[in-house]
Design goal:
Layout: E1 4-9, H1 14-29, E2 33-38, H2 40-44, H3 64-75, H4 81-90, E3 94-98, H5 99-105, E4 119-121, H6 123-131, E5 135-138
Parallel strand pairs: 1-2, 1-5, 2-3, 3-4
Helix pairs in contact: 1-4
């Protein structure tokens, strides 16, 4: 039986979205099945054109901190968020969008990047995924 990882992506912060995608891709590369359950401000990053819009969780400094981190990441060839998301989907990772969050926050399906979303679902789907997982994380 294949090992499984489920990650709740609750935060929309730039560095936390990076963390979720890096861990998700790493787990996929190790042969695990991986689901990312996007909810609340994490789901905001799946809006069309919004993946890179989050601020840093710390050291934001009115945008200067994010600029410095992005510059450093480019210098050491860290893959972009778009590249990581594309890799995640290509490697068979599942992107789950919380439909309750969509209702609460007024997000419509047409606002989201439907090409990367595997399923629009409720917390019950997350719980089922998590129950079957060897690794669960909350980011």
């Amino acid at each position: 039986m294949t090992e499984k990882a489920t990650i709740i992506v609750h935060s929309g912060d730039f560095d936390k979205i990076y963390s979720a995608l890096i861990i998700g891709n790493g787990a996929l590369a190790m042969g695990m099945d991986v689901s990312l359950y996007f909810t609340f401000f994490g789901l905001e990053r799946l809006k069309k054109g919004a993946l890179n819009k989050g601020k840093l969780s710390r050291m934001h400094f009115l945008g200067l901190g994010k600029w410095m981190i992005k510059r450093k990441m480019k210098k050491v060839n860290v893959r972009s968020l778009e590249g990581l998301l594309s890799d995640f989907v290509e490697l068979g990772g599942k992107i789950l969008a919380c439909d309750m969050t969509m209702e609460i926050m007024g997000i419509k399906k047409e606002d989201l990047r439907d090409e990367v979303i595997t399923d629009y679902c409720s917390v019950g789907t997350y719980v089922k995924e998590a129950k079957e997982s060897d690794l669960t994380l909350f980011i």
